Amino acid sequence: MSESAVTKSAKKRLTWLGVLVALLAGIIALGSATGNGASFTPKLALDLQGGTSIILAPLVQDGEAVTEEQLSQAVEIIRQRVDATGVSEATIKTQGANNIVVEIPGTPDENTLKLIRSSAKLQFRPVLLTSAGTTAAVGDSASASASPTPKASASAATPKAAPTDGSDLNWVSTELQAQFDALDCATPFREAGQIDDPAKPLITCDVDGYGKFILGPVEVEGANISDANAGTITTSTGAATNTWAVNLDFDAIGTKQFADVTGRLFPLEAPRNQFAITLDGYVITAPSTNAVISNGSAQITGSFTKESSKVLADQLKYGSLPIAFEVQSQENISATLGSEQLASGLLAGAIGLLLVIIYSTFQYRGLAMVTVGSLVVAAIFVYLIIALLSWRQGYRLSLAGVAGLIVAIGITADSFIVYFERVRDELRDGKTLGQAVEQGWNRAIRTILVSGGVSLLAAVVLYALTVGNVRGFAFTLGMTTLVDLGIAIMFTHPILQLLAKVNFFSSGHPWSGFDAKALGANGYIGRGQFRTSEKVSAGRVARASKEANKRQTLAERKASGSASNSGEKN
Q: From CA 236, how far away is CA 234, in angstroms rounded?
């Protein structure tokens, strides 16, 4: 590659790097200016900012005990719920033998709190009767707003005759009908922590209080849902529409149960063809059955928006716990580490950075400016990425994450050292600085990629196998490793290519870091050619040349003879 092409390529990569930095900064600035919640200040995690602590206590029948397996399953499901809302660095752990403590950084929104508070089992019940709750008639739409404060119980009475199935109106006794008629969804009607008998009918309201229901016994448990997600409806031809729906899949047991129920509900008249989904005893949606679903995949349609469909999908996917819980307490908590510990962590990082700069200056002289420049650009890039993730993905920086950033300084510096030493090795072999920069890069990039790959693999494994703050460390370590590779390719190498054209470096100035004498260059500049000092006598040079000719190979003597004959003929 010609010198002009090398210069052009180096400037092009530096330009693209500048465009990426400007793009990240521009996106955050635009989000901040338009009031979308963007900020150049990253959000902090629970250990640095404080947040909200919620203690959940299990609700069990008299004589029952909570097992360790049930508690572990509940912790994992609640963690999935919180993660699904975009909240990171939350802490979910057991307390004692029964309770679960959920600690969320900052001030969580109502949807997040609702997913945590709505800790009872998710259940599917057939609809027997419906009526207006207080202000509007019940429909098929799926609601996702907060539930009324539960207080008074509204349990079902003994039926007047033995029902034949869950949709049999014989479940509705005179007493049950009277309770249903008297129910006003505008007033609290459920006791705190009320446990409903799955084998009996239930009188309840939807979560908005718009409609009230008499529901049959539980026919499918929420634990039998294997997956749920929100998406737009597609037509029979595969074309996408702007109508949102919730898709859910059942496991083997749920598939059979759901097929049996939909087969029974499909031919019935409204409202008995509806299948209500309850959470904490309230109806979150009651869609009509439009077909017999035997493959275990169902779709809930209604007046959904993108946000409401996602909320319902999260409720369905993470709504089923092995046991029911009630909120025992909820309170704000202060930072467990606070600004003092954050300042200590940042100070440790600054000291590490200073030591790297001192070492680079002592070892590489003028090349230290490349080290400092690369670290500054990498720091800007990482900071903007963290700020963007805080805005778009709810990422929060914890002290463990800060530790990952500090460790990354050493990894980044290691890449520079590998590259610089490869360039100096080429100079020792007699290459020019331009040649040494290119050939040194070809040798160094393989080592840099392998080293970065090992660090990235360690970060991925650590992230996959751990939870909580350790994940924060793994995430920042992996992110900075990728940034390091990008900076080495798009900044360090092209900067060195441009510096190789500067006389201060190309001339081998003692303070450039490329002084051939200081590096112990052997003076070899090509096959059969040696540099000789002007102080060496002509006789000594002749004797050395004669000795060198004796050591030539047969091919080299033949080539030398051919060159001499050619010169004589000319």
A: 7
Q: Determine the Cα angle at 470 with ends 55 and 480, to 5°.
A: 135
- Per DSSP, what are the bridge partners of residue 298? 248
Q: Evaluate whether 451 touches 418 at the Cβ level (below 8 Å).
A: yes
Residue position matching structure tokens 């207006």: 132
User: Could you tell me if 98 and 71 are in contact, meaning their C-beta atoms sit under 8 angstroms apart?
Assistant: yes
Eight-class DSSP state of 490? I
- How far separated are the first and last CA of the chain, in Å rounded? 34
Task: Tell me what the pLDDT averaged over the chain comes to.
Answer: 80
Q: If we measure between CA atoms, which residue out of 215, 217, 213 comes closest to residue 137? A: 213
- Secondary structure (3-state) at 427: helix
Residue 372 in tokens:
């400092």
Taking residues 56-84, report their average pLDDT: 77
- Eight-state DSSP code of residue 156: P
SS3 282: strand
Architecture of domain 46-113: 2-Layer Sandwich (3.30)
- The lowest-confidence range among 134-143, 286-295, 319-328 is 134-143
Whole-angstrom Cα distance, residue 154 to residue 180?
9
What does the pLDDT read at residue 135? 42
Written as one letter, the residue type at 181 is D
How many CA atoms lie less than 13 Å away from 59 in the CB half-sphere? 18
Structure confidence at residue 156 (pLDDT) = 43
Total-model pTM: 0.59
Residue 106 is classified by DSSP as S
Q: Are 459 and 483 in contact (CB under 8 A)?
A: no
Hey, do 46-113 and 120-320 end up sharing a CATH topology, with the first three levels equal? no
Peptide bond into 271 cis (omega under 30): yes
Chain CA centroid to CA 211, Å: 39
Q: Which CATH number fits domain 3-29+337-506: 3.30.930.10, 1.20.1640.10, 3.40.50.1980, 1.10.3470.10?
A: 1.20.1640.10
Asked whether the beta carbons of 111 and 102 are under 8 A apart, the reply is no
Between CA 99 and CA 95 the distance in angstroms is 5
Q: What is the pLDDT of residue 137?
A: 38
Whether 559 has a pLDDT exceeding 60, the answer reads: no
What does the block give as tokens for 132? 């207006």
- Provide the residue type at 150 as one letter: P
More confident residue, 410 or 259: 259
Angstrom distance (rounded) from CA 445 to CA 486: 11
Residue type, 327: V
Decide if domain 120-320 falls under CATH 1.10.3720.10. Answer: no
Rounded to whole angstroms, the Cα distance separating 143 from 96 reads: 36
Strands (E), 135-280: 202-205, 211-215, 220-221, 225-234, 240-250, 275-279
What are 338-343's contacts with CB under 8 Å, separation 24+? 338/48, 339/48, 341/47, 341/48, 341/399, 342/44, 342/48, 342/399, 342/402
Domain residue spans of the chain:
3-29+337-506, 46-113, 120-320, 534-564
